[in-house]
Amino acid sequence: MASSIKIVLRKKPNQDGTFPIAIRITKDRKSTYTYLGYSVTEAQWDAKEHKVKKNHPNSTRLNNLIENKKTELSDKLIELQVQQKDTSVSAIRKQIKPKQHTSFFTQAGAYIENMRKEGKYNRVLTEEARIKHFKSFLDEGDITFPEIDVPLLNRFRAYLKSERKVSERTIINHLILIRTVYNQAIAGDIVDRKYYPFGKGKIGIKFPDSIKLGLVPKEVRALETVDLSDNTYYNHARNLWLMAFYFAGMRVSDVLRLKWSDFQDDRLHYTMGKNKKTGSLKTPDKVIGILSQYRQDPKKHNLIFPELKVLDDLDDTYHVQRKISYAVKRLNTALEEVAKRAEITKPVTMHIARHTFGNISGDKIPIQRLQELYRHSSITTTIGYQSSFINKTADDALDAVLNME
Q1: 403 CB-contact burial (10 Å; exposed 0-12 / middle 13-18 / buried 19+)
Q2: Higher pLDDT among residues 357 and 262, named by residue
Q3: What's the CA gap between 90 and 118, in Å, rounded?
């Protein structure tokens, strides 16, 4: 059955005696109404022609509004039918319901809460800080999605650079947050896509190239051999860094989760926490020496290293990530001192172990093999970890041309 659209005056009067003007849409003998926000008296309404009489002071403007709204709804109904979408009364009601431009910060709060429930502690911390920066930029005021346009985002970018003194990469991360919340609002039919301020000809998002500076073999050997016998925690921090390096740049979060049961038949079998990809690696002899230092420790949760043994429930993802975050900060502080003792001037953090493996591997293994070891979905990501090799290749090519002997 075809849908019908009709302009009507609702039967229930307002307190002032006027009646609301509404558009009635009927499908399969069921009706839904959308109100125009204007009311007239019965004497000002032409029930036969379904329009406002000339005795109303704004009859021409109201009748134009009625016709425009009727045409708009008719177009939406035709679009639904052409797309072969559900055209039940409930579906039609959803389509014609005016969008309430909900506060950006209300939606951002829901976004944060979802991450909290998913146990993403680190993401919650960083994204909350970015939301706070956006709110400070707006002088603690609220904002609707249509108000977030290209000029405003350009001003926010300038604010972050000049007032917050943050890097271009950090600025991009702020914009990605806003884009993510905006996309969720569009998906939830909270805001119309026509207001979307991102994309071609609008706000583009592209991370700047960054230099991932890892250690060279000489520096790794210095780290391996420096005497730390006077400080057990410094030695422990070094052990964890070397474990990450020896296992092809394993993430620190995965190192801290390692269990004795992960080692079987001289191989490590584990699942990456970040992307849930599984794999197996041979256990290097150097790792066996490190593991021997922990065999007499308490075996809570069958964990090798102590950082997560204080937790009662390893399935509580949020608190596990929270504890890992605290542990990494402490480990990185210790590694600063270890680097000084080893006479290494470059920054040494747990994450640098990952870049170090990538840099040293550059002229030893194919990029595709490194991608497998890192378990990257995109080889573009892997290439960033071989930056020193790429530079070396370019240098060798330059020398080959200039040394014309």
Answers
A1: exposed
A2: 262
A3: 32
137 touches 152 (CB < 8 A): no
- Based on the number of CB atoms within 10 Å of its own CB, is 223 exposed (0-12), middle (13-18) or buried (19 or more)? buried
For 8, residues 6+ apart whose C-beta sits below 8 A from its C-beta are 21, 22, 23, 24, 33, 50
The residue assigned the tokens 């070094």 is 238
CA-to-CA dists, residue 396 to 145, 370, 392, angstroms: 52, 22, 6
Q: Which of 264, 276, 287, 255 is nearest to 351 (CA)?
A: 255
Query: Is the pLDDT score of 210 beyond 90?
Result: no
CA distance 217 to 238: 16
Q: Which residues of 46-60 are buried (b: 16+ CB within 10 A; e: fewer)?
A: eeeebbbeeebeebe
Q: Which two tokens stand for residue 167?
A: 């890097």
Q: Whose structure tokens read 């959308």?
A: 34
For residue 201, pLDDT beyond 80: yes
**CA nearest 339: which of 330, 327, 348?**
348
Confidence band, pLDDT 50/70/90 cuts, at residue 402: very low
**Average pLDDT over every residue of 322-340:** 95
pLDDT value for 375:
57
What's the CA gap between 119 and 323, in Å, rounded? Answer: 12
Q: Which of 102, 75, 77, 96 is closest to 87 using CA atoms?
A: 77
pLDDT computed for residue 232 by the predictor: 96
Cα distances from 188 to residues 72, 100, 101, 112, 161, in angstroms, run 22, 11, 12, 16, 32
Query: Can you give the pLDDT at residue 221?
Result: 94
Tell me the pLDDT tens digit for each residue of 8-64: 998 888 888 899 998 888 877 788 888 877 889 999 999 999 999 999 988 998 899
Beta bridge partners of 8: 22
Query: From the centroid of its chain, how far is CA 359?
Result: 27
Amino acid code (one letter) for 292: S
| Residue 45 φ then ψ, to 5° | -115, 130
Spatial contact of 85 and 91, defined as CB atoms under 8 Å apart: yes
C-alpha closest to that of 258 among 240, 285, 245, 276: 240
The pTM for the full model equals: 0.58
Banded pLDDT at 82 (limits 50, 70, 90) = confident
